[in-house]
Structures are given as C-alpha cells and as structure tokens.
C-alpha cells in the first residue's frame, strides 16, 4: 500500500514542530480523505517541498479541513551535485511528463528552452507545473521541489549558468560520433562536482549553430546509444544516468 502523503499549507516563515496540529488546505484535505480514503489515526507524511517531512497522525478526517498532529520531523539535505535539465521545449504537454519523472529521479532544476526547432507555441504555466511537481513529490517522497523556469531562449539559459559554481556541462548530441555517456563520465576528471547541467534538444534536435554555442560554453557532447531517442525519453534517460552516476 502506498504511503499516505499531503502537502503542508503554504504559510511563509512558519513551520510546525512536534506536537503541533496542522490543518490542511481544502484541495489537500479532499485528496487525502476522499481520494486516498485516509481514516482517523492514519499515519500521513506531510511535505513542505524545502527538505522536511513531517510525520503526522490524522486526528480529524474532514474532507474540507483535515487536521493532523505532528509526531516527528525528518530533515533532508539537498542532494549533490545539483542537476539542472536544460530542455528544448517539446511538443504538446510532454514537458509535464519530463517534470514529473524528473522529480522522481532527483532533478534539481528544469529550464525549458525556446530553440529554433521548437514546434507550436510553448506556454509556461508555472501554476500548473507547480501542482504537477507537488503531486509527483507526494508520490515519490521527494523532500525538495525542483525550481522550474518559464521557457527562455538558449542565450538566457546559458546566462543562468553563472549562478552555479564551476558546473559540469553535458549535451546529448546527435552530431558526429560522440562517446557514450559512461565512456564520457569515466574520462572526466574525478572530483566532487557541485552542479551539473545537462542539455537535451527538442523533437527536431538542436541546430548546428546551437550545438556550437553549447559546446563553446564548455559542454561535453555525449551519445545515449545507437538509437535516436524521443526528446522526452532522452530527458528521462539522461537525468537518470547523471543522477545515479554522480550521486554515488
């Protein structure tokens, strides 16, 4: 049976302590009581999205204002290195799947990019993406919600790298004959990276000029296998491999 989880109400600067009573917001209350069918005395994991789990007992299973008593608090450090996915904006709602699975895989930040081969008219719905992130965190137990940006140009995306100390940059490349991921990883200088940025193109891939700009920024080109992956698949594979390799 899946663990019962809910998000704490958003009260800036206020965090419950052991023994405190918490009243959930209406949406979280409905989901916990009506959808997950939590009962009185059920144990619930409350998340705040900034590194804490509040283990609590449901004292009042009200679908409009559920009440819980905090039993203990668990604190999590941020995973290192931080992993940022710079994603060429994919078609339709694919970015939502990339965000959801990215959270399950431990992604730190997602920055959608408006590159030349982006199809359609991308729209950055941060409110919807935040809700998707919260639901994915409840399912996976991720203690930290990732940062998510509105879609930006490649130039603006690269400018954000200045926020990170000496990041490792890697680009999934269909150009030439780049080494596969693990060969490339083994050839890198062995040190503790604090930040890693991975670049994945949209369905039409990056243009040669875009590849050149990303390489000029210091990115290491890598291959993800003999087959050409869909943009969404590449994002999942890339994120999983990078987080598992560098967070060992």
Mind explaining what this structure looks like?
The chain has helices spanning 26-35, 94-105, 126-140, 154-159, 181-187, 208-216, 231-246, and strands at residues 5-7, 21-23, 43-47, 52-60, 67-75, 82-88, 109-114, 147-148, 152-153, 168-172, 195-200, 220-222. The longest helix is centred in the C-terminal third of the chain and has 16 residues, at 231-246. It contains 7 helices and 12 strands. By secondary structure, it is of the alpha/beta class. It is elongated and about 60 Å long. The strands form 2 sheets. Strands 6, 7, 8, 9, 10, 11 and 12 form a 7-stranded parallel beta sheet that branches. A 5-stranded mixed beta sheet has the order 1-3-4-5-2, sandwiched between helices. The protein has 2 domains: 5-75, Hypothetical PUA domain-like, domain 1 (Ribosomal Protein L25, Chain P, Beta Barrel), CATH 2.40.240; 82-246, Alpha/beta knot, CATH 3.40.1280.10. Helix 2 (94-105) runs parallel beside helix 7 (231-246).
């Amino acid at each position: 049976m899946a663990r019962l989880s809910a998000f704490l109400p958003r009260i800036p600067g206020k965090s419950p302590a052991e023994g405190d009573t918490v009243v959930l917001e209406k949406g979280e209350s409905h989901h916990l009581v009506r959808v997950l069918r939590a009962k009185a005395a059920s144990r619930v994991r409350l998340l705040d999205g900034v590194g804490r789990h509040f283990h609590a007992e449901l004292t009042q299973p009200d679908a409009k204002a559920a009440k819980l008593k905090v039993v203990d608090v668990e604190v999590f450090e941020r995973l290192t290195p931080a992993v940022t996915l710079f994603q060429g904006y994919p078609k339709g709602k694919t970015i939502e799947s990339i965000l959801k699975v990215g959270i399950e895989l431990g992604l730190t930040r997602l920055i959608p990019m408006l590159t030349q081969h982006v199809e359609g008219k991308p729209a950055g719905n941060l409110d919807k993406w935040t809700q998707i992130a919260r639901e994915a965190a409840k399912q996976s137990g991720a203690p930290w919600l990732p940062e998510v940006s509105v879609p930006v140009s490649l130039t603006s995306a690269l400018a954000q790298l200045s926020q990170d100390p000496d990041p490792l940059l890697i680009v999934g490349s269909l150009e030439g004959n780049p080494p596969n991921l693990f060969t490339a990883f083994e050839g890198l200088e062995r040190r503790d990276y604090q930040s890693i940025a991975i670049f994945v193109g949209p369905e039409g891939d990056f243009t040669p000029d875009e590849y050149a700009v990303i390489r000029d920024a210091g990115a290491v080109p890598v291959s993800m296998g003999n087959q050409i992956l869909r943009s969404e698949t590449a994002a999942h594979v890339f994120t999983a491999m990078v987080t598992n390799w560098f967070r060992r």
